[in-house]
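Side project, low priority. Logging it here so it doesn't get lost.
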Amino acid sequence: MKTPDSRFYCPLISVGTIVLDENESSHAVRVCRAANGDTLQLCDGLGHYADAIITKADAKACEVRVDTVEDAPFKRPRLNLGIACLKDDALEEVVFHAAQTETDSVIFLRTDYSQEPKNSDLKKTVRRAELKALVSLKQSKKPWMTRIEGPIEFDKWLKDYQGDLILCDIEGERQLDLGECAADNEPAKPITLLVGPEGGFSPREIEAIKTFQNGKVHLLNLGNTRLRARTAAVIALGKVL
């Protein structure tokens, strides 16, 4: 038996016979040339895995047999990325990179200086971002798929948010110590890394972040050069993960 060096997405993994959808079936049979008796690694993006034996190598409806379902050895990550809405395909690019890391969600925020049209619902961008997150889930072989949220007005999001914040700021620390754990009987708080649009958050928004009361606020310095928003997001994630 052979095992293609990729995971295959299956939203409902259970013991028994499973029929993969057409996209995953085609990838397994046509692209990876998997045949009856070969093993596929399945994941559901919710912390579950399974080795599945192909019983019917059909490029449109590949049937597999699952004998055991395994759980991820660690909990869902608590780090999120909140990024201002950007123009062109910048948001998709950020998601493609962020979703390969242990980032729980990427939240599209409408800020004072956001560069997308204010009357846009970003449905196409959100859908393409979700597809990027799915591709990254399989490629990176991680147990949890990065969720895509928004777009949402920044003020509303901040008002409802409960957790810690990290703001990229020239006056911040070059390295952050985020290793503090919650008490055994308390769940760990979420942490959201905030990246503004080109030109940054507005002075009003920066003040709202720095005076946030529903969690701790950390300031992170990304260096001495001015970065594009998409670049800042990736570098900041690399510093805190």
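Brief comment: The chain is about 25% helix and 25% strand.
Revisit when time allows.
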